[in-house]
Write a structure and sequence with these properties.
The complex is a heterodimer. By secondary structure, chain A is mainly alpha-helical. Chain A has 10 helices and 3 strands. Chain A folds into 2 domains: 87 residues, no CATH class; 101 residues, 2-Layer Sandwich (Fusion Protein Consisting Of Minor Coat Protein, Glycine Rich Linker, Tola, And A His Tag, Chain: A, Domain 2), CATH 3.30.1150. In chain A, strand 1 and strand 2 form a beta hairpin. In chain A, helix 3 packs antiparallel against helix 4, helix 5 packs antiparallel against helix 6 and helix 7 crosses helix 8. Chain B has 5 helices and 31 strands. In chain B, helix 2 runs parallel beside helix 5. Classes of the chains: A mainly alpha, B alpha+beta. Strand 3 of chain A pairs parallel with strand 1 of chain B, so a sheet runs across the interface.
Amino acid sequence: MIRSLIYSITFHSVLVILTILSLPFMLREPIDLPPIVSVELIQISDKTSIPYAPKARKIIEETKKKEERLVSEQAPPAAKAKEKPDRIPLPNEKKEEKQIVKKKQNPEEIKPQIRQSSEFEKKEIVDTNQIAALIDKAKEEEAIKQKKADKVTQSNRKNSFATGLTLSQEDALRAQIFGCWSVPLGLPYDEDLLVRIKLQLKKDGTIMKSEILDHQRMNRPGQKFYKVLAESALRAVRLCQPLKVPPTGYDKWKELQLNFNPSEMLKG
Amino acid sequence: MKKFLTILIFNIFFVSKSFALIEIDITRGNLDPLPIAISPLHVDIKSEKFDGLKIKELGEDISKIIEDNFRGTGLFNPLKKDAFVQKPDIAHLKPRFEDWRLIKAQALVTGKLLVKNEKLKVEFRLWDLAAAKEMTALAFTTTPSNWRRVAHIISDKIYERLTGEEGYFDTRIIYVSESGAKNQRVKKLAIMDQDGANTKYLTLGNELVLTPRFNPTNQMVTYMSYFRNMPRVYLLDIETGTQEVVGNFPGMTFAPRFSPDGKKIVMSFAKDGNSDIYTMDLDSRIVERITDHSSIDTSPSFSPDGKFIAFNSDRSGLQQIYVMRSDGSDVKRITFGNGIYGTPVWSPRGDLIAFTKMRKGKFYIGVMRTDGTGERLLTENFYQEAPSWSPNGRVIVFYRETKSGKKGEGFTAKLWSIDITGYNERRLNTETDASDPSWSSLLSK
């Protein structure tokens, strides 16, 4: 009697649990009504009243001002001008003076030139100990200047809304490379076909340095196709030289990464 | 805690740095044939004479074969020699890359040859003109009469280096050569190089021959022949010319084909009025039944790993393609389209099955994935069948019958090839009419 009662209870409870668990699934899914879009019917009169226009103008003016401010921050020739008098009394450093003059003309190239000059100076230190102190001074000044330059570029990045290229600039570049890339046709369909190439560009869009990021994979056994693919991508980039880069914003695009992947094309 | 914070700040700094790098996805390219310059091979002035060969023109001849091979693929565009600016002897040592780039070439082939002591030595280099560097360089020594094969081997090496897949130029095609009127057709077994040269006839034409098939591992061929109206399966060694009968089989026997390891043949024959699929071990000659069904099962073809067999059967009404394990279990129908499907042939790569489809009085050659999805019909005509794969699984050769004569009373049968992309359909040159082609594996492996 007790045993059958236990059976009954367990089976019933199992049934109850099952119904509790399965009922929600058995229920039909609620009909998914599309969200109601409220539409305001506006009658168009002959005269238009544009209450928002002045606001928009204000915003535009504000952004313009901001940009102007930025431009003024960007130009550091004033700091350089100070440098000149310090350097005049050095008859041995005529070459350096010339470099400084160059810097003035081309404020964007500050970074690499500073590095060059500092290396040059290091050699000088070894050669002539006499002017070491002076050079140290110059170094300090340059370091300060470099920091300033860094600050300028950083603030630039933060403030400008687009961190990279604009869509149209990107499309132009992409379209150019599409045309140059002869895709090898013996590629397998079911393998990872991504080739990443990192480029260092000159201002005119020619290539200073190109590097395949996963180059270890090229020599792996069974990955012969990858070598062919990577080479075709490199060839495409070289054939396309000079790349269609925007005339401004060299700092943004002086390093580019191109991700070549023909998978979609081969499947289609 | 301080350390942790500094690390955290450091990380944030680096993350922001890495995001600053602009990334552009390139997902498309052009599929135009790759422009390639094939400079004539430079003939060394120390070369000696050799009977039956014009040594002076040999360099030109070899480059011509390479050029024809590449043009035939549809993937390369060999440039006209008139535009070449550097002479072969200088180009071979150090090409002026700028000059070759000027004529829009992306790759350059140079080479030189020397015939001495009845040996031919050929050396070639492949240059990447964009990168201004050598991609590959090889040298071969052989008997001078083998010069055509050298040209094909060089073609294979270049093809492999530029496309990433094996070439198919140093190969042969065996086929049934046909001549005479339709009711008095003489059928002989014939073999030629893949480019149509060096045709040889292997049988006399007294008996009907059918369905020659290459062994995928060597240069053996199996084919069928009717002897006193009884079908027989033969094995033929092409190198030595020796033949042997594998066995007499009852009733209708069809399409023997090798297993991927070359140790078995799979075929269909009718026993007790019912056609099923059987394998035969070539060493022990033991015949094993694979399918046992009341329907007609024919045209078996092994997958390259030997684990599966594709075949066609009318067990569901119309003839369709099925795939099963090589022991006959797990039979699955893979074609469900309208029309009749037949002659499935598994690609050497293993990714596709080629087939013939008949629908509304027309014949199609197509390919599909091994589960039957992704069907693509490559070519359409009134009568065409018997697809066979190139050893790299890129090209399919088949035969097509077309009507000939003024009123269309006669017909001709020719071999055709097509790329698996459906492009580059072209006719192969054969001395006579031809049917039932089978493509060999690479001769030099």
